[in-house]
Amino acid sequence: MQDESLEGIYRSLRLIRRTEEEISKIYPTDKIKSPVHLSIGQEFIAVGITSVLNDDDIVSGTYRGHAAYMAAGGSLNKMMAELFGKADGCAGGKGGSMHLVDMENHVLGCSAVVGTTIPVAVGYALATKNKGSDQIVVCFFGDGATEEGVFFESLNFASLLKLPVLFVCENNGLAIHAPIESRWVTKALCERVETFDIYTSQVADGNIFTLRDSANKMVENIRVGKGPGFIECMAYRWREHVGPNEDFDQGYRDRAELRKWVENDQMEKVGEMLDEQMRLSIDASIEDDIVAAIEYAEASNWPDPNMLDKNVFAG
């Protein structure tokens, strides 16, 4: 789905980071018409996973879905227009940041309601199996979503039918402001998932190449009919739960936790592996793409009011 080269991986990481940094600058102007949940610091998960997928594999995101959408190849222009509430947005300007979708580029869609994309992804995986397709579905969600009953129901259903779905938990240790320690008796998430006869892997070092290796093995198993896989990716949310700012003054976490993740920033680590001129060229290209996407959003028209009740129900 993505360029597996070092340059391609860096470009994807950098594009997501810089796009979200620009979103954080624009957000206070009120041009962006919906809340934004930034994935700054967590980009390596979406990039690492999608780098081992085929072009026609399906990606399902969460309300913190910018990274998954862009890593999967979703249109940057349409995403920015969607954030601006414009008619040329990927959801017609009606969904905003939390409802990104681009089926032309195999982005199944995101939802503002925690856990709701998990059964949708499983349903799509069932459809692909019934069609005899070799597509797989990757379902991203946060650690908070694993507390929803539908998570366990979906694991059970997917395992029973050996569906081609890869469950990816982006575990940043927080459900909004509640740390895992106050929510889980045990952190053994993979162990719980294994009871559904699902092969699991935990990637705790925040390394994109460790994650790619794990994802590649999972994807190979899924493609040959061995059923679903589950990867728990440890991560850290650099910004506040919703919005462009930091929130270390709110008392539920300490800035010291952030330092080790900043020092291990995968965008910088991968960038350092590139020739300097190559990196500068990629950076410049990305800046041009972001400027063009913002201009596209600015120039797009507002949705026709008659569209308000369209597509609310099927048909």
Notes on the structure:
- With 315 residues, this protein is of the alpha/beta class.
- It has a single domain, classed as Thiamin diphosphate (ThDP)-binding fold, Pyr/PP domains (Rossmann fold).
- The chain has helices spanning 6-26, 43-50, 66-71, 76-83, 117-131, 149-160, 189-194, 208-223, 255-263, 266-271, 276-299; strands at 58-60, 107-109, 137-142, 165-171, 174-175, 178-179, 199-203, 229-234.
- A 6-stranded parallel beta sheet has the order 2-1-3-4-8-7, sandwiched between helices. It has a two-stranded antiparallel ribbon with strand order 5-6.
- The longest helix has 24 residues, at 276-299.
- The two termini are 30 Å apart.
- The model has no long low-confidence stretch (mean pLDDT 96).
Question: Topology, please?
Answer:
Elements: H1 6-26, H2 43-50, E1 58-60, H3 66-71, H4 76-83, E2 107-109, H5 117-131, E3 137-142, H6 149-160, E4 165-171, E5 174-175, E6 178-179, H7 189-194, E7 199-203, H8 208-223, E8 229-234, H9 255-263, H10 266-271, H11 276-299
Parallel strand pairs: 1-2, 1-3, 3-4, 4-8, 7-8
Antiparallel strand pairs: 5-6
Helix pairs in contact: 1-2, 1-11, 2-8, 4-11, 5-6
Question: What count of domains describes the coordinates?
Answer: 1
| Count of DSSP-assigned helices | 11
Silhouette: globular
Strand content range: 5-15%
Give average pLDDT, whole number.
Answer: 96
Write the element-wise H/E pattern from the N-terminal end onward: HHEHHEHEHEEEHEHEHHH
Main sheet characteristics: 6 strands, parallel
Number of strands: 8
